[in-house]
From TrEMBL:
One of its GO terms (molecular function) is ATP binding. It holds the Pfam family ABC_tran. Signal peptide: none annotated. It comes from the Bacteria. This is ABC transporter ATP-binding protein. Gene3D superfamilies: P-loop containing nucleotide triphosphate hydrolases. Keywords: ATP-binding, Nucleotide-binding, Transport. PROSITE patterns: ABC_TRANSPORTER_1, ABC_TRANSPORTER_2. InterPro entries: AAA+_ATPase, ABC_transporter-like_ATP-bd, ABC_transporter-like_CS, P-loop_NTPase. Residues 4-247 form the ABC transporter domain.
Amino acid sequence: MSGAKTDNLIEVRGLLSQFGDQVIHRDLDLDVQRGEVLGVVGGSGTGKTVLLNSIIGLKEPEGGTISIFGHDVGGATDAERQDIERRTGVLFQQGALFSSLTVLENVASPMVEHTKLPRNTIRELAEMKIAMVGLKPESHHQKPAELSGGMKKRVGLARALSLDPELIFLDEPTAGLDPIGAAAFDDLIRKLSDDLGLTVFMITHDLDSLYAICDKVAVLADKHVIEKATVQELEKSDHPWIKEYFLGPRGRAATKTA
Ligand SMILES: Nc1ncnc2c1ncn2[C@@H]1O[C@H](COP(=O)(O)OP(=O)(O)OP(=O)(O)O)[C@@H](O)[C@H]1O
């Protein structure tokens, strides 16, 4: 299994995830290709976040293999782990910003941790990332508590982009945003993916996001990925959950506005 040969940045094979006796994933396979914007959907509690955590090494699988950038996550050496961390950005569901740090310090923190760049360079790079996600310089010295939900998400995204990753993980990035804010955030993610060639792994419940920006959608049900396809292909699926999801009232509304 070589990431370079297949151009898969992520390869999950036969994943088994458990908490005690509770099986979350069994025989789960998933490929994520370089440059792809992948939406990950599934009912509440189907294990989307657990899958994300397993791929980034925060949860050890009970079975199967996960490779990222061609490194086996389970058997990664310290150097390989560092490589994975440097090439990956994560926007957690709650933003996970440091409340005592300013916006600038939050965005700079991965560079402080992972590079030996001079302080001035780090500050300039952090300022660039903040501008890239559409925040004004006035935000630099604000603390997270002073920001709106949408601004916090943007700061979280700027921090996820801090080390110029090739791959970003987003856990429900538009949750809690109003429809206009969510659409703007979708546009931003798509633009970053197009401009920077970013590969995106995005957990979402937001049908509009799937239609607006995802190249492919992976559906989690019955403890594994039952389909990975375009939204148009999924609309034709016979699986009951997929049918309900895409062809129920909210799905039809999203199709109309796409
Ligand atoms: N640390 C943990 N200890 C025990 N069980 C856990 C732990 N983390 C997650 N789970 C369980 O794993 C299952 C999947 O959780 P997960 O958060 O991945 O679901 P999800 O698909 O992301 O759900 P949602 O869409 O509601 O965010 C749930 O039943 C949850 O209770």
